[in-house]
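Chapter summary example.
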Amino acid sequence: MNRDSIELDNVSRFYGEVLGVNRVTLSLPPGITSLVGPNGAGKTTLLNLMTGLVRPTRGRVHVLGISPSQPHKLFRCVGYSTQFDAFPKGLTGFQFIYSFLRLFGTPSAECKRLTTLAIEQAGLVDAADRKVAAYSKGMRQRIRLAQAIAHDPRVLILDEPLNGLDPLVRAEMIKLFRQYGAEGRHVIVSSHVLHEVDMISDQVVLMSGGYVVAEGQIQGVRQEIQERPMQILIRCKQPSMLASKAFEQDHVVEAQLLAEEGAVLIKTRDPDGFHRMLNHLVVKGMEIEGVTPADDDVNSVYEYLIGEEGSS
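The structure predicted for these 312 residues follows.
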């Protein structure tokens, strides 16, 4: 048992007759590890196994030498931000994190200090005393991240953490993940957005149908993505101006104004270049409320990559 890694030994999880994950054996070192795969690949099940929210049907899981059957020990070193958008009613952002820290038996003054620090790192200082129910989708995502990092965990587990964030907040979160990885901590990120994974990961675990089909350094992911245009949904205050600016970029194939107010669908061959353009527009004053992947062809991209890995 390695106390410096996250280890899964021949782990399977079934929900009745439905497969969650099957025969997964992994040893994840410190740094940023991305679990990659389309919806239904088994990513969330694997994260829930690491945090003890579900138990394996067979096999063993250890996180830094701790079994998830020891929740009090595990959750002192693990922070988990799920993709589920549910909160206790009536709490402000500050109260949401403060009450979580009190569960650890942390003294009140220290809880206040840690809560303030986490809210600052998540960029929610101005919204700390507002009720979470009044937050936008992106702000709710950030308060979940703030809760996950509030107790300074050695392992940070994040389920689709960048989905719906505006460009500047996305950049700040990526910077935070990299900082954690550089400090020798474990950052486990699930995603179905290939260019984000290629940008932030030290190692990648590629999943399909509940199985791990590849792991380690997967070369050429960025080139594979750029061969297929990617669709991105942006919500902003000036959709017509954004569409016009997008069309000035050689890599943008299409910019479509949607019936939903303030929504623009962009199709680009260079998602990294497009996100750099968005960052530039935000710095110049454009109000962008959220950026979400909307790639209808994402499953075929994974099938292509999985096929390449399987034949090598």
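To summarize the output: Residues 122 and 173 are 8 Å apart (CA to CA).
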